[in-house]
Design brief:
single chain; 216 residues; alpha/beta; five-stranded parallel beta sheet
């Protein structure tokens, strides 16, 4: 068995305990990995990062609390430059995918992947590859193609326009989340993107500007 000092220290960031245990079991099949801790929220993960020498994280996007897995990736990338991050999530949204990669994620796989695929993705990440579920890779390629075909002129994504339209109709964050089949936290993340793109700082201002620009 490999010496503990030579093992790759891993944090599992996942608020679904069954999924967290699944990842722990997968990692325990190899002497290379040591699960240094499991976190269900941003705050728990930051505490683990600051008190352990971590080499790799698996991170879900939707977590307990207001902050998401993308916030964790940003924090870890900024403070601990050499940490590798594999996103493991149900979220297939293209905007979330891009945000995760921009934040510093080294790979992006969907929940429902086989045990072999998950372990292989972790190994590939360690080897310097960028593991992605084939469906996610196809979506990434399609997004680049769409941007090229449109000349990059689209200001808001279809999802962002949909969410803004719901907001204009008086829907709450929770109602928008239900209609779109996403979490409230993801709705909040979309609004942050909308504010940045439209250069506003409130929902009412975003709706007004979008109408003036004939976006909605």
């Amino acid at each position: 068995m490999a010496d503990n000092m030579q093992k790759i220290n891993v944090i599992i960031v996942e608020d679904d305990r069954e999924q967290a245990e699944l990842l722990r079991v997968i990692l325990s099949t190899s002497d290379k990995y040591n699960v240094a801790g499991m976190a269900e929220s941003y705050e728990e993960c930051v505490e683990l990062l600051n008190n352990n020498k971590i080499d790799l994280m698996t991170v879900d996007i939707e977590l307990q609390g207001e902050k998401t897995g993308i916030d964790i990736i940003s924090y870890a990338t900024d403070k601990y430059k050499n940490i590798l991050t594999l996103v493991h999530t149900v979220n297939e949204d293209s905007e979330i995918l891009f945000d995760a990669l921009k934040a510093g994620a080294g790979g992006y796989i969907l929940k429902g992947s086989s045990l072999v695929e998950i372990f292989s993705s972790i190994e590939r990440l360690q080897a310097g590859d960028v593991p992605m579920t084939p469906k996610i890779a196809r979506r990434l390629i399609a997004s680049f193609k769409q941007n090229k075909d449109s000349g990059g002129q689209e200001l808001l994504s279809k999802r962002e326009m949909e969410i803004l339209d719901f907001a204009d109709r008086g829907f709450s964050y929770q109602q928008i989340a239900k209609h779109c089949g996403i979490s409230r936290h993801t709705v909040h993340t979309h609004f942050k993107h909308i504010y940045t793109k439209l250069q506003v700082n409130s929902k009412l201002s975003a709706i007004k500007k979008a109408k003036n620009m004939a976006i909605i």
